[in-house]
Write a structure and sequence with these properties.
The protein contains ten helices and 14 strands. It has about 375 residues and is of the alpha/beta class. The strands form three sheets. The protein has an eight-stranded mixed beta sheet with strand order 4-1-9-10-11-12-13-14, sandwiched between helices.
Length: about 375
C-alpha cells in the first residue's frame, strides 16, 4: 500500500513497527458520478438545459476513501465494482490514481456499475441515481480473499449506520482495536430511533448533521442534541451547515464549536464525506478537539469550490496553498487566522512536486 500519496504523513511521528498496516478501513457502494455544473437553475420539465461544466469521477464511498488517501492516510476500501467500463474506470482511478488499497474489493461479472447524475446550481444539487445491489459473494469463490465481514486490522474504521441493518464487520473491527466512526444517512423509515442503529454502541465517534441529531434526540437545538447523544457515544460531532460544527467529548467534558469558512460553493457533492475524512485525520493524529473541527471544516470548504465528490477532495498541496493565500490577504481577521495557526507546524516549506496523478475528470481519454 502506498504511503506517499499526499506528500505529508500526518501520523509519521506516531507510527511504530507493531501498528496495523491500514490506517482506515471502510466499505460501501462505489458509484460512477457524472456531475453537471454551471446551471443557472433547476432543469425545467419539457426543456433542454445546457451546463457550462461537466465531469465524471468515482462516487459513493469513493468520495470518503479518496479524501482520506489525499490527506496521507493508508486507506483500505472493500467494495464491489461492475465489470463494465465504468467499473474499470473507477477501479483504476482509485487504485492507480489515488493509491487506495483495493485488495478487499472485487469485480462482479455481469453486474453493471451504479450511476449517479448530479446537477449543481445555486449552491445546491439535485441527483438522479440508478443501480442494483451487488450479489452477495460466495465465501469459496475467491480462495484466500478476506471478505468484508472480516476487515483488516486498522487504526480506524468508518461505518455507515443504517436503521435496522447489521454489518457483521463493525463489531469485529471494534474488537480488534479500531476506532469506529459512525456516519449516518437520512432515516427513510421516519422513526428516528437510536436503538435501531445496531452498531452505535461500537462507535468511538458519531457524526450526524444537525437535522439528524435533533430528530434522533427529539430536541430543537443541535447543541443540546450533541450533549444528549454523548450519553451514548464517547465523541459526538454535529455539523451545522453554514454555521460550522459543534462537538462534545464525553470523557473530558470538552465541548468545541468552530464556525464555517465562507466560500463560494460550486458543488457541495461529497462535502460531508470530506468533513468526516478531515476529522478522522485529526483524531488519529491526536490533535485537540477544536483543531480537528477546524481542519475538517477547512477541508470541506475547499472541496465545495471544485466540482465532483472525489475529484474535489483537497490534499495537503491545496491546504498549503490556502494557508499561504489567507496569510497574505491584508483584510484577514487576526483572530480568525489564529484559529488555523496549528497548520504552521504541519505544512513544510517545500513539499512534493505537484500535480499528483489523480482521477481523470472524464471517461475516454487515454494516457
Amino acid at each position: 500500500m502506498s504511503t506517499d500519496i499526499s506528500g505529508i504523513d500526518p501520523l509519521l511521528g506516531l507510527r511504530a513497527p507493531q501498528d496495523p498496516p491500514c490506517d482506515v478501513f471502510l466499505t460501501g457502494p462505489v458509484f460512477l458520478d457524472i456531475i453537471f455544473t454551471g446551471l443557472d437553475s433547476a432543469p425545467v420539465r419539457g426543456t433542454e438545459s445546457w451546463a457550462r461544466g461537466m465531469g465524471s469521477s468515482p462516487g459513493g464511498v469513493a468520495n470518503m476513501a479518496t479524501a482520506l488517501a489525499r490527506l496521507g492516510l493508508r486507506t483500505s476500501l472493500a467494495a464491489a465494482f461492475g465489470d463494465d467500463h465504468y467499473g474499470e474506470y473507477c477501479w483504476d482511478a482509485l487504485e492507480q490514481g489515488e493509491g487506495i488499497d483495493l485488495s478487499m474489493s472485487r469485480t462482479v461479472p455481469g453486474w453493471h456499475s451504479p450511476v449517479t447524475v448530479s446537477m449543481a446550481y445555486e449552491g445546491e444539487r439535485t441527483m438522479v441515481s440508478h443501480g442494483h445491489e451487488a450479489p452477495t459473494p460466495v465465501p469459496t469463490a475467491t480462495p484466500g480473499r478476506t471478505l468484508p465481514h472480516c476487515p483488516p486490522r486498522a487504526r480506524a474504521a468508518i461505518a455507515s449506520l443504517t436503521p435496522g441493518r447489521s454489518e457483521p464487520w463493525v463489531p469485529g473491527a471494534a474488537r480488534d482495536g479500531a476506532m469506529v466512526f459512525g456516519d449516518v444517512a437520512w432515516d427513510e423509515t421516519g422513526r428516528w430511533d437510536l436503538d435501531a442503529l445496531p452498531h452505535l454502541g461500537h462507535c468511538s465517534a458519531f457524526l450526524p448533521n444537525a437535522e439528524e441529531a435533533m430528530r434522533y434526540t427529539r430536541t430543537d437545538c443541535p447543541r443540546a442534541a450533541a450533549h444528549a447523544l454523548a450519553e451514548r457515544v464517547p465523541l459526538v460531532v454535529v455539523t451545522l451547515g453554514a454555521e460550522g460544527a459543534y462537538a462534545v467529548e464525553r470523557a473530558t467534558g470538552t465541548a468545541a464549536e468552530v464556525p464555517a469558512i465562507a466560500v463560494e460553493a460550486l458543488d457541495p457533492t461529497g462535502a460531508g464525506d470530506v468533513f468526516v475524512a478531515g476529522f478522522v485525520t485529526g483524531t488519529l493524529a491526536g490533535w485537540p478537539l477544536a483543531d480537528r473541527l477546524a481542519f475538517a471544516g477547512l477541508t470541506a470548504a475547499l472541496s465545495v469550490q471544485e466540482f465532483g465528490g472525489s475529484l474535489s477532495a483537497p490534499g495537503w498541496a491545496e491546504i498549503a496553498a490556502w494557508w499561504q493565500q489567507v496569510r497574505t490577504c491584508a483584510d484577514q481577521d487576526p483572530a480568525a487566522l489564529e484559529r488555523y495557526a496549528f497548520l504552521e507546524e504541519l505544512l513544510p516549506a517545500t513539499s512534493r512536486a505537484w500535480p499528483l496523478r489523480r482521477a481523470v475528470p472524464t471517461i475516454g481519454f487515454r494516457q
